[in-house]
Every structure is written in C-alpha cells, then in structure tokens.
Specification:
Helix content: over 70%
Radius of gyration: 21 Å
Length: about 180
C-alpha cells in the first residue's frame, strides 16, 4: 500500500514538473514571438484575389481594411462588439465585413476579436506591473471579455499557457532581471 502511495506521489510530481516545463517553453516562445511584432500587410494582388473570391469591390475591401486597422490601433475592441455593431461603426455591410475578416485574418469575427483582446492583454501584462496584480476576472473584464472563463479559454487557445502561469512567469522574470 505504501509503495502504491509513493509511486502515485512520484507520478504526480513528475507530471506536474513536465507540465510546468512545457509551459515555460511555451512562455519563452511567446515572449520571443512578441519581440518580432509581425504585422499583416495586404497588397493589391491579395485585395484583388479577395475581391474576385467574395464578389466585393477592391475599393470596399481596401477602405474596410483601413478602417479595421484604425479599429485595431485605437484598441476599441476592448468594448463589447457584435459583427453588426462593428459594421455600423465602420459604415460597411456586415456580410462584407465578415468575408473580409475571414479572408484577411484567416478566422471568424469572434476569434478575430478574441485574438485582438488576448494580444492586448499580453502587451499590457508585459508593460504594466499594476495590471499584473489584477485578478484574472478583473483582467478579463478590462480587455473586453464577459467572463474570466472565456478569457482563460481564449488565452490558452492562442498561447498554449494559462494567463495565471503567464503572469507568474512575467513576475519571476522581472524579479530575476532586477537582481542582475
């Protein structure tokens, strides 16, 4: 019986160790990829291809992409948006907006918003020590999610690690850098 208990405890220890090691690797890859700061550029040829595929004029696609870029850089996505409300704000048709997001971003509207919010939260967590001290619930509300569960799920889906681990690792890295 004691042998089974010791085996179980060792198994749990190694499993936890392995999971933390994998999360640390994902954290380091995430930090490295953020430093690259890739920006999606859409050229005329791509716009024409999207236009032909979706029966939307080049001018509408181009103006909508400019408006989407402004939407992204102004961080308006932290407010609650539906496809209809954003299309009204951008003064475009919701069907066109959906097709343009699907074609240029490679995802649907909901995942597009979630991705913007997760990227925003990651940047803010990296740069704002006070923000790192917030609860997961407060962070999720601050970046536009309705629940902490939906934030945690979206964060994990995009990064492969949980927000709590990300914050813990950031704090440990900041503390280690301050000692040097």
């Amino acid at each position: 019986m004691l042998f089974v208990l010791i085996f179980f405890l060792l198994f749990m220890f190694f499993r936890t160790y392995k999971k933390n090691k994998q999360s640390s690797i994902k954290f380091n890859k995430l930090i490295a990829s953020l430093k690259e700061n890739k920006r999606l550029e859409i050229d005329k040829e791509t716009i024409t291809k999207i236009s032909k595929t979706n029966n939307i004029s080049d001018e509408i696609i181009e103006s909508t992409l400019i408006k989407l870029t402004n939407f992204e850089t102004s961080n308006k996505f932290i407010k609650t948006y539906s496809l209809n409300s954003l299309s009204k704000e951008l003064k475009t048709n919701s069907t066109y907006l959906s097709k343009i997001i699907n074609s240029t971003k490679g995802t649907n509207f909901s995942n597009y918003l979630n991705s913007l919010r997760i990227d925003y939260s990651i940047k803010k967590l990296q740069t704002d020590k006070l923000f790192r001290s917030y609860t997961i619930k407060a962070i999720s509300e601050e970046v536009g999610f309705n629940t902490s569960q939906s934030f945690t799920k979206a964060f994990y889906k995009k990064t492969g690690i949980y927000p709590s681990f990300f914050i813990k690792s950031l704090n440990e890295n900041k503390n280690n850098n301050n000692r040097d």
